[in-house]
Amino acid sequence: MKTETYIRIEQICTHYGVETSFLHQLKEFEIVNIEESENIEVIKDSELPKLEKMVRLHQELEINPQGLQAIDHLLKKVVDLQEEVMTLRRKLDLFEM
């Protein structure tokens, strides 16, 4: 069983040079999950790749949280469609044999 590692949002803000309000906006738009542990706000380390992507888009392209929400939704759609294509290919392979 894998145990989750959590990172304080203060550390994340310092590392990426963003305000805590930005992370709260990402939570508000359901892009990342901020949890509370012993009155300390934390994020699971498994969410870091997604968070890094959103921070880069925000900083480099100046995309606001609403835009990040749209991008996140579209990326999820792409993943779902890729999974559907793989499933259909497997089914097609069964019929071609």
Structure description:
The chain has 97 residues and is mainly α. The protein has a single domain, classed as Multidrug-efflux Transporter Regulator, Chain: A, Domain 2, CATH 1.10.1660. The chain is 65% helix and 11% strand. It is built from 4 helices and 3 strands; from the N terminus they run βααββαα. The chain has helices spanning 9-16, 20-28, 48-61, 65-96; strands at residues 6-8, 35-37, 40-44. It has a 3-stranded antiparallel sheet with strand order 1-3-2. The protein is elongated and about 55 Å long. The N and C termini lie far apart (39 Å).
What are the salient characteristics of this protein?
97 residues; mainly alpha; Multidrug-efflux Transporter Regulator, Chain: A, Domain 2; three-stranded antiparallel sheet
